């Protein structure tokens, strides 16, 4: 089992995942963002978001990423992620997100239909629902953690002031990795 775990960690590290030593940070309570997670997400968070910056991931190989959220069923939000690949084709994946614990409505789990893996964390650290959203996820793997982060905007661009604010929130939450621009939308 230790050989398999070590092999998995080496593969993830070699494929540009944000694998770091240590346990996942515990971001501050974000519940003020979602007074009633399902109601607010159904009506305010849904719609199209543009990927402005992200931590590099193995599973996202393209640019100009978008995420479109839609009400699916009580307690579940539909997820459609798209990206433009180098050959000009559009890659997409469909999934769903749901609140893991009602006491922490800003912490969701996202799963995708074509990926045979457990749901991943999708924590909304900041959002005004109209212009920006900061999403963070972290999973512990023994002595290491795997981090994900996305800065999203309702428009293909974001002001430098808002971008710096999102990066500060991410850093204060414990993610010290350098987040990268996603390219032109």
UniProtKB/TrEMBL annotation:
Pfam entry (one): Lipocalin_2
GO cellular component, one term: extracellular region
Segments forming domain Lipocalin/cytosolic fatty-acid binding: 44-174
Residues spanning the signal sequence: 1-16
GO process annotations (BP): brain development; lipid metabolic process; lipid transport; response to reactive oxygen species; tissue regeneration
One MF annotation (Gene Ontology) recorded for this entry: lipid binding
Subcellular location: Secreted
Sorted UniProt keywords: Disulfide bond, Glycoprotein, Lipid-binding, Pyrrolidone carboxylic acid, Secreted, Signal, Transport
InterPro entries: ApolipopD (IPR002969), Calycin (IPR012674), Lipocalin_ApoD (IPR022271), Lipocln_cytosolic_FA-bd_dom (IPR000566)
Stated family: Belongs to the calycin superfamily. Lipocalin family.
Name of this protein: Apolipoprotein D
């Amino acid at each position: 089992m230790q050989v398999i775990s070590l092999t998995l960690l080496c593969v993830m590290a070699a494929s540009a995942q944000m694998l770091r030593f240590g346990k996942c940070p515990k971001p501050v309570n974000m519940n003020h963002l979602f007074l009633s997670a399902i109601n607010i997400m159904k009506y305010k968070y849904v719609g199209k978001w543009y990927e402005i910056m992200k931590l590099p991931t193995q599973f996202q190989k393209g640019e100009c990423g978008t995420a479109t959220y839609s009400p699916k069923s009580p307690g579940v939000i539909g997820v459609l992620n798209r990206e433009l690949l180098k050959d000009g084709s559009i890659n997409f994946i469909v999934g769903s997100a749901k609140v893991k614990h009602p006491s922490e409505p800003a912490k969701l789990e996202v799963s995708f239909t074509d990926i045979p893996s457990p749901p991943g964390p999708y924590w909304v650290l900041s959002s005004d629902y109209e212009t920006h959203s900061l999403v963070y996820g972290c999973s512990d793997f023994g002595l290491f953690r795997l981090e994900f982060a996305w800065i999203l905007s309702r428009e293909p661009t974001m002001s430098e002031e808002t971008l710096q604010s999102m990066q500060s929130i991410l850093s204060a939450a414990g993610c010290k990795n350098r987040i990268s621009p996603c390219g032109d939308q």
